[in-house]
Every structure is written in structure tokens, then in C-alpha cells.
Amino acid sequence: MSFVDSIVEPLRFPFMVRGLIAAMSVGGLCAVVGSFVVLRGMAFMGDAIAHSILPGLAGGVLTAGRGDRRALFGWALGTAVLVALGMGWIGERARVREDTAIGIVFAGMFALGIALISTVRGFAVDLVHFLFGNVLGVSNGDLVLIGAFGGAVLLLVLLFYKELVVVSFDPTLARTLRLPATAYRYLLFVLVAVTVVVSLQTVGVGLMLAMLIVPASTAFLMARRLPAMIVVGSLLGILSGAIGLYLSFYWSVASGAAIVLVTIAFFFAALLLSTRRQVLRRFTNG
Amino acid sequence: MKRSGALIFLLMVACSWSAVSLRIVCTTTIVGDVVGRIVGEGGELKVLLPFGADPHAFEPTPGDLVSIARADIVFLNGAGLEGGIDPILGSAMGLVVGLSDHLDLLRLDAPDEHGEVDPHVWFDPTYVSAWVDRITDVLSERDPDNAIAYRARADAYRAELTALDAWIVDRVSGLPEDSRKLVTDHAVFGYFAARYGFEQVGTVFPGLSSLSEPSAKDLAALERSIVTLGVRVLFVGTTVNPSLAEQVASDTGTRIVVLYTGSLSEPGGPADSYLNLMRYDVSAMVEGLSEAP
Amino acid sequence: MRTRKSWAASIPSRLHSRGTVHLAGAPAVAATALTVTIGGRPALTDVTFELAEGRQLAVVGPNGAGKTTLLRVLSGLLPPSSGEVRVHGHGPCGHICIAYVPQKSGIDWRFPVTVFDVVMMGRVQRIGPIRRPGAIDRRVVQDALAAVELSDLARRRIEELSGGQQQRMFLARALAQEADLILLDEPFVGLDVPSRSEVLELIAAVRDRNVTVIVALHDLGIAATSFDEILLLKRRMIGHGSPRDVFVEANLREAYGSCLHLAEGESGTVVVHDTACSGGGR
User: Fold this and answer.
1) Do chains C and B meet with 3 or more Cβ pairs nearer than 8 Å?
2) What is the pLDDT of residues C109-151, one digit of tens each?
3) Of the residues B115, B139, B166, the one at which a domain ends
4) Contact A130 B59 (CB under 8 A)
5) What is the pLDDT of residues A51-60, one digit of tens each?
6) Which spans in chain A are helix H?
7) What is the mean pLDDT of the segment spanning B111-125?
8) Predicted complex ipTM
9) Is residue A140, in this structure, part of any structural domain at all?
10) Are residues B235 and B108 part of one domain?
11) Domain range for residue B234?
12) CB-CB under 8 Å, C76 with A173
């Protein structure tokens, strides 16, 4: 089979086309938001939000039942936004570190979710997996969600880029410049929350976590400046999604795992190259 | 006359006095239903899994641990279905019975599996009949005072199972050979296919468990078989995330039919007992497969 | 160095419309009975002074004297517990023309930004939300970099800067911000003598722009030599005026105990620390 054929062959299956669009979109979107996550040291926020939406899912199930996935998505999204604001608020008020605030909300919400679901117990973990998607199972409706929410997130990052950077890099400067720093911080948290929920609802939790952190970290090793880091990260995310899916198609590897492994491979390649460059520099500078 | 009457009265009193309340714990709702039919009203029966929960994904809670520890007898489906339960079986103080464990089990014949067995034995009523034998033996041993009652109920239930088996044979007789192809979300119908002349031609989730993840290659192969074999229906269970199956169905133009596979329905629903579950599933299956193309 | 007038003329007036308008005739900084209590303890008590526009003030005192607290109040980051602070006639919080460089910047030096990027951050409020930096903003940043002699390091990542270069970068950022009041907290800590001189020269050069500068520092020698106005604190004001007037034995003893001595050097009064002595401090 020629090279072109091997690219085209999987595209004859609608689930591959949808999967590619989903994986590539999510890869790009997560890398943009993930750049801020990585630089601010909020890496476990993705996992925290994924678990913190459990009470929201419980509420959704108790009112709308298990079958209505769109309703559950709405509950998950709403809960995630509230959780993000909560994390931001605790970080402000309690003067604890960002990761502590995140951890507190995560633990509390997850326990609350388990408690709420204890009436239909045995369901709790099941329910969490029930909502988390699989990149091969995305529907056209899911693609619309990714497009709409992903687009909104990207637009907001673009519009308020320099403010988000100042607030992330130098909060003191933000305050002396009289920027509404708290508002921008909440905005960033909400953007992360929306990205997380949309991604895990469509491509699943394992893939979402990797896409949020790894391509951005890889780009950090490669880029000099933040705009370049964001662009390179997105490209890596998009590329990983595509390559991973093709691997899953030809080598029968589970799709989510394949994509994650590709992102990791890129990371180690960048790590090796950047170490080489540093060693080289030390030699040439004498 | 009066003496025999008094004797009978005494016997009845003796029987009610000796109605030892056995504490019995069952894992799945299906096991719970069958065991319940034998135990009758006397015992204290608890089922761990709620309706609609996936037995493959069962993770016991501390409450479950307590129930298992206090139980006189724990009945499992066995054969590896309740994967999550192994760690806590050690805390059981009473008897633990894997109902399918010593039966003639099907092996999964994929080359990379190391002889994994198919645990979905309940889709063949003759296996459930074997369950009944085992249950009765265990109960009679533990509670000999009520052995007669147990055996009586077992006999009655076995008769119903035989009737079910005959009914199924009759119901599927109308389906032509090449319609007897089953595409499901995961491989539940091995025993059913073996007994009633069907063939499991494809599954969305590879292997025997709903916890495995299909690769793109698996899904592509499934879709190709569906098209090649002219399959019109995709059967999905109530316990597994249906999104993958839904996409496969919409891409290949097949219909989705929901069956009860791992769990009974809620009481009052169409599959609230094992017998009803089988009747409902077989009817839905036959209806789905005999749709004119 | 261009004077402030020509500098300002080159910037369109719309950029000046943000932030509180300065009150004509008001001093750059005016504190009245300023008291700040932090966590129940008095950090500053009853501080009253005025600073005229364009002046350069050194705030000195032992550890815990309230130097940082004063700067934070002037920058608008910390509200006074009682008393009043005015910058150009109004409270500090409305102004966007105050630049504050804290002692420990709390910045992640591994952030992927260049010197140019950091200096441009000073202009974020001037540019406003949604808009991108324009040609004018880039020119302002380039001029600011030139003023602190960092032009050739503009594209350098900040993690590669020396301590002296870092301070110059923050100064450039303050200039790019078009700050009228620059507050520096211990800018000389960790700098070697040549770097220290560089920074002092740049602070002096800023005088031409009619920018008011307040520097908190603990090195009395530098304060006495390079600044012509001193504010001596030990949680309350001990002295305010020229070095000669402030650094008298009585004041020094009150602030530092008996470990400091005056000496006459070539360039004027020099204060000598007796490092073998204990006392002073809190």
C-alpha cells in the first residue's frame, strides 16, 4: 500500500474521521490552556476537576437519569465552573498555595459526590466512567461541543492574552497596574475547567490529562518565548492526536493509549535534544 | 386422630422454631434472583450490586465488606466475572460459593489470551439449573432443618427452567441459519450461541470484559464484518457505556436493540427476574433479527 | 537623556487619559499620621512627611523598621490602618503611574519570556484589554531599554540575566509604564559593587524625566552618598531631611543602638557600621 493510500484508507471510516477531528482539536485546545497550567504549576488541576464533577453528575443522575448524556454534560460543565471558581476563591482567601487550594476542593467534592451517590452505591465509579468518553466513540454532536466551547476558550485566551500572562507571571505587577487580577485569575481557572470537561466528555480522562500537560511541557523545552511555546504545543498536540489514531488503526493499539504514548515520545525526544544542546553549548563556550 | 393432629401442630411449631435465618449475600442481581427462588422467605438475602451496575466493574464498598464478613454464605457468579471482589473474599467468615466455578466453561480462543474463560453462563438455562443443584446442596448442608423445603423449591424452579429452555428453542426455530448472527457490545452470548445455534460475529469491546478498550483497527474490522455479513442489528446491554456502540451503529446503518445482559431491570420492569430477563432478551433478539432487510 | 517634556510630547494624549489625574500643585507623595497595623502589631506609627515631585528619597532603618510596609502602602497594595496617604493629591489606588519593584520579586525566572517581553508588560494597562501592543508601545519599550542600557539584551531570556541586569530590567519596565513614582525595595541586595554603581547611575539619570523615586535600603553608606533626601524609620519617623541633618548621633542611636558612627569622607558624611557590635535591628 502506498503512503498516500495508507493515509487515506482509515478515512473511509466515519468514526476515524470524527476521531481525528476530535483528537486533533482537543490536542490543540488543551495545549493552549495547558501552557498556562504547566507554567503556573497547576498540573494536577486536570485530574482534580475530573474528579470534582462527581457531585454534579450525581445531581444530574438523580434528576435526569443515566440516559440523558447531554443533560449530564450540562451538569458536569456547570459543576466544573463552580469548582474552578471555588479553587480560585480559596487560593485568594486562605493564602494557601495554588496546588493546596486545588487539592482541598478536589477532596471535598469527590467525597461529596460519593456521599450523594451512596444511595445508588456501587454506581459511583461506574458513573464517572460512564460519562468519560472515548475518542473512537465521539458523535457529531460531540464535535459541535468541542468546536463551540473550544472556540470560545481560544477566543478568550486570544483577547486577554497579555493580561493572563501578567497575572500568571507577576501578580504584584498586575496589582500595581490596577488590573482586575482576581477576575483574570478566575477567568483562567474557568477556561481550564471548561477545557477539561469538554475534553474528558469526548475523548476520556486519560487522554485529556496527557493532552493538557505533555505537549505544553514539550514545547516549553523547545521554545524561547511564550507565544512560540503555545503554538508549538498546539502543533504537537494536533500531531500526536493524528499519529496516535493512525497507530491505533494499523497496529491495533488502544487509541487513547496510543495518542498518549506519542505525546510522551515527543517529550523525551525534546528532552534529549535540549540536553544535547546544553552540553554542546558548554563545550563551545569553553 | 387427635394425636396425629397434635403431632402435626407440634411439627409445624418445630418447623417455625427451626427457621434459622441464614444470612446470605449474593453479588449480581441475577444470582440474587435465582438464589432467592430457592431460599424462599426464610433467609436474609442481600444483593451487593444495584440494578444496572456492571459486574465487571464491581468495586466493593466498606459496607459490602461488612456484609460479606457477616454472611453465612456468599454466592458469586464466579468464573472471573466479579473481578473486583477477589481482594475482599479473604474477609468472609462463612462459606464462599462461586456458582460457575466447577462447570464446563467456554474458553476464549483468541491467540493472545491465556485461556481466559467466559463467565456469562446464565444465558444457558441448563447452566442455571446446575447452579440450582449447587445452591440446594449448600443450603441443605448449612440448614438441614429446611432441606426439604429447599429441595421442593429447587425442583419447582428446575421445572420452570426446563420449560424456559423449550420455549427458547421454539422461539428461535423460526430464524433462518444466516440470520443467527449476533453483534454485541461485549461477548456475553457465548453459552447462548453454543446451545441455540447462534454465532457471535463481532463485539464493540474486544475480549470478554467491558473494561477493555477497542483499538481503531478493532472497530474498523467490526464495521467491515457487519457490512460483509449483512448484519442489521447491534445488541447492547444496559450496563455499559453505549457511545461507542451508538457510533458504530449509525455509521453502518444498523439498529441498536437494548438487552438486559449483566443485570436485572428494576422491579416492575420487563426483566425483573431471571426468567423474565431471558424471555425479554430472546423475544427482542428474535424480533430484531427477523426484521426484513 | 531626553527631558520629560519632549518624551511626553511624542506620545498621543489618549494614553494619558487612564488612571487618576494628578492634582496640580500637590506634592508627589504626602503621608499624614500614617499608621499601619499588621497582624495586631504596629508596623508603622504616625508617619508624616511630604516629598516633592522629581525628588529621590532613600528610606532607611533597621530590619523591621517598616520600610517595605511604607512602600507597599504608597504603591496601593496595602491600605493604611489609619491616617492618610496621597500620591499627586489622590489616594494611590486610582493611579496607574506607580511602579513598585519588591525585594523578592516572586517571579518564576524560568518563564519563557525575554527582557523585551517583561518591559512590555509595564504597558499592559496603557494598551488596555483586547488590544495588541502597537508600534508606539514597541518604541516606548525600546527607548526604556536604551535608557537602562539593556538594548542588546532585549531578546535574552530572563533566566540568563545577572542580578544587576534584572534590576535594570525592572527599572526599564517602570519607565515603559510611564511611571511618575518609582518605588524600589532593596534594589542593591546581592549586587556586586560595579552593578550597584550602574543601578545608582540609572536611578540618578531618571531625575531628568521628572520622575519621583523612593528607594528602601539598609546600606546607610549608599544612602548618605547617593541620595540628598533621607527618611529614617524605626516603625515611626525618626528623621527626614538631608543626610547631614538626619544622620546625627542621636537619631542613629535611637534607630540602631550604639553601633554606628559618623565619619567625614571626601564626598560628605559617611556612616560607618560597626559590624562587631550587637544591638540595632528589632
Assistant:
1) no
2) 999 999 999 999 999 998 988 899 999 999 999 999 999 999 9
3) B166
4) no
5) 888 888 888 8
6) 3-8, 14-39, 45-52, 54-64, 69-93, 98-117, 124-131, 140-159, 161-169, 171-176, 181-203, 205-222, 226-251, 255-285
7) 75
8) 0.86
9) yes
10) no
11) 174-289
12) no
